[in-house]
Amino acid sequence: MGSEPQTSPEANEPDGTTRRDDPLARTASASGKPPDVATSLLRVAGANVFPIPPPLYYVAAMGTGILLHRLVPLKIPFRAITVPTGAAVLSGGLAFNFAAVITVVTHKTTLVPHRRVATLITTGIYRVSRNPMYTGLALAVVGASLLARTWWPLILLPAALLAVRQLAIEPEERYLTEHFGSLYTDYQVRVRRWL
Fold first, then answer.
1. Spacing of C-alpha 165 from chain mean position
2. What one-character-per-residue DSSP string does 2-57 give?
3. Gap between the Cα atoms of 103 and 5, Å rounded
4. Domain map of the chain by residue range?
5. What is the pLDDT of residues 84-95, one digit of tens each?
6. Whether pTM exceeds 0.85
7. CA 78 to chain centre
């Protein structure tokens, strides 16, 4: 009776990311089901996040803030300072998002929180923030609020950040801890959640 070769549950990629060997995928392929069906069923299991996409919380803060400003204006003064500062902060937030998306796509893992994560990314922009997309969106709201010269989106932003933390980030962190174990918890110690 022969034994199966042992495979490491974690494989370090040349770019510094870590890919987990998925025992469920091996089980599904051993079951005799076509790989495309088995694999597609396994790939949908990810973090148990609330079904509203996290970017919508930021859009809600900005949009509601603009509507409130039309009803009860809370104007930010010093246009000569706030407009260029807003443009710089907005650009920085969008750059954060762009860098994060490119990194995720390059490492062939998912942008969708409730989908299975194939790779733990700890390089590039992910060395600065564990959640660069959410951080970038927050910066974008700050910048857009300065450009629009209204306090309302800034007043509403903490509610959006709280919703994102509780409904998206915390479930994602639980999932990543279960999926990657000490690799993720060590990463949590090294890199902040936001900035």
1. 11
2. --PPP--SEEE-TTS-EEE--HHHHHHHHTT--HHHHHHHHHT------SS-THHH
3. 33
4. 52-190
5. 999 999 999 999
6. no
7. 34
